[in-house]
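Chain A, query sequence.
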Amino acid sequence: MIKGSLVPNITFFDADGNLDIEKTKWHMRWMFEKGVDGLFLTGSYGSGPLMTNEERIQVFKAAKQVVAAFKGKIVLTHVGCIDTKSTLELAKAADAIGVDGISAVPPFYYKHSEDLILGYYKEIVESVKTPVYAYNNPETSRFTFTPDTVLKLQKIGLAGLKDSPVDVGFLSTVYYDVKLNQKNFEMILGTSKGWLPYYYMGLQAAIAGMNNWAPEIITAMMKWTFEGDCAKSEKAYVVMLDLSKKMHFTDSTIVSHMGLYARGFDAGFPRKPMRLPAFDNPKYKEIRTFVKKGFDELGIEMETGTASSVALD
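Chain A, predicted structure.
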């Protein structure tokens, strides 16, 4: 069972748009050292749709190298592409590498009927031995899962579902069907928003974008939640929600790079057409101020780096 805090980790590129695998591995190690339980590779945050299959496979292999130095960490690979052929190529590669799970968003851009989506997942399941998870992200895929869709996916053999919209009606319907009928099917929150109420319902894992730039806060929130310390977990949850709101001013991938730079870490670059604000932009200093305030409110020391690209003084 997948439990705890995972990260939809960003992929690092250099200024020319080339994959920076060493910086990507540094970031993976750093997050593991801060308590993150697992990686969700080359999804939306991880720029998967902007990468070739060969580049994504490099990231899969890099994650396996990094995770080998840590105990009990999880590697989930996102293999979803706009077409089935490319998705299957990635799924088979991830399976051969030996990851813990394979996830895929429905094929995006074009609008597909449910029967085509079910056929897509059936081909993935039949092509690998690794557990396969569907990824409900209608904002990017133009397909919205329903409880009935999930029932059909369970019959195909899917291991679980990562859900990003966190709609209470949908999630509770699926969760209690799984619980009451004792099904072997995992539900993973695709965001840290909603963590506490859904944890009390029974969910055990969340994929938190904030882990990219403030993993200490998510780690503390999870720790206090699992320990049953309601006062601390609720305070951490409120701090997390406040920081999430303040960082919701542009694309989440850009925000993750900026959050790292604001802490003094060399966070490389996203791939164009994404672009970071100029390093003399006062937004970096503003981020550093309110992130530090969040750490202070929870009594957590905020580690800072020595990268000098951004003006923070």
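The radius of gyration is 19 Å. The beta strands are 4-7, 38-41, 74-78, 101-104, 132-136, 160-163, 186-189, 205-207.
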